[in-house]
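Worked problem 6 (solution included).
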Amino acid sequence: MGSIAKQRWRFPFPWSPTHTKKPQHQKKLHPTDFLCPITGTLMYDPVIVSSGHTFDRNSVQACLSISFTPTLPDGSVPDFKTLIPNLALKSTILNYIISSSFRSKPLDSNSVLEIVKEIKIKASTTTVDSELTPWPSHLSSSSSLESVTPATPLPLTTTTRPSCYSSSSSSDVETLTLNPTSEHNENGIVAKIKSALVYEQEDGVVSLRNITRTGESARADLCTPQLLSGMRSLITSKYASVQVNCVAALVNLSLEKRNKVKIVRAGIVPPLIDVLRGGFPEAQEHAAGALFSLSLDDQNKTAIGVLGALQPLVHALRSDSSRARSDSTLALYHLTLVESNRVKLVKLGGVVVLLDMVRSGYMSARVLLVLGNLGASVEGRAAMLNGGAVGCFVDMLKRDEFDSELTRESCVAALYGLSFGGLRFKGLAKEVGVEEVLQNVEERGTERAKAKARRILAFMRVRYEEEGEEETVNWEELLNSEEGSRTKL
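Solution. The predicted structure is:
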């Protein structure tokens, strides 16, 4: 920066060609916090830089392209190494634009670049002089809470959000130099997460997300009761960037096996469920992923079901997000390895949803795994038989349009589970021609699929007494020979 760091700028306001004739109207028209401190124009894409200041993205990129760093009115110099989207302020500005009569479009990047070049020229030719026109007070960068706080935040329970409230993706955090031994240690992150200032909360969860993305030791070291306590309230934050990055960081923490039980015992599951029901879209994806990750630990399965995760996970199966659908299905698979969760899922009407997905070819491979688990319970078998599962599975085998042999094997395994339904299964299976398709499986299927097909065929070929429905063979011995492996697909 050299001598530039000691200079104050002198330039007319505003620089936007569309408003040069009415600068005073621009001042009155827009709240000053909505204007970029560099160009004086409305910020359509505000970003927070490393120094904590907020600028319009195009202005920062223009400065970087010509290697120019301005000096702010208070003498501070912004640090442009990191650009983090200020989604809360962006939402507020877009809502303001929609509710006002202002209809001007944002300046294109070339126009902004010309403005910044002119500012640089003026800054390099101007000396410090008390009589010079100071930087207009309304262009001062605001670091107050209001700069990142929307006027009317939307409630978390809103399930349909306008595009201006769309959450940030992992690529939005463009650069972040982390130093776990300095301000990014546990105490520093916890302090930021527990701060009352939204921009500090955001910085804390973004730092945590990045540290835990690849650092296995960091995941173990940082997952403390103090950190989890601070994250618990931010999971349901009304601010998209805070909520999304907090839940994403939680997913990273949950990848460490020793953290899974800690996280559940810290009371994290209920707010995760709230996000899955009505959080920001990307946060919902991460919430499904977190529940899937946490469900991998056997100690967590029953607790997650008791806390009410099954219903929102079933609802997420119809999400527009393939990630949310996939992780929700995997979470349900692991949760239904526990009998109590099978019963709950059946009572919630999960069988109907799952069978509809299979019929439509919607993630059939994973859905069949869940149905295979449900077939291991009396309630699950009854609901599946009532829902036409036998015909559905046999029809799939007849079409023979599986994306992999594993999917075919899962279909046969689910059918095998239903065969424990006794006479009722036998009657339904005969109606849809199960023997023919299973003979085809015996010829072409994998060894595991062949074994299950042979057992079902053996069941179908045994005769009953004409009167009554008393069995003439020991069904337990015949069908339970591999009972322990029914759900191991």
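Discussion: Residues 109-125 form the longest helix (17 residues).
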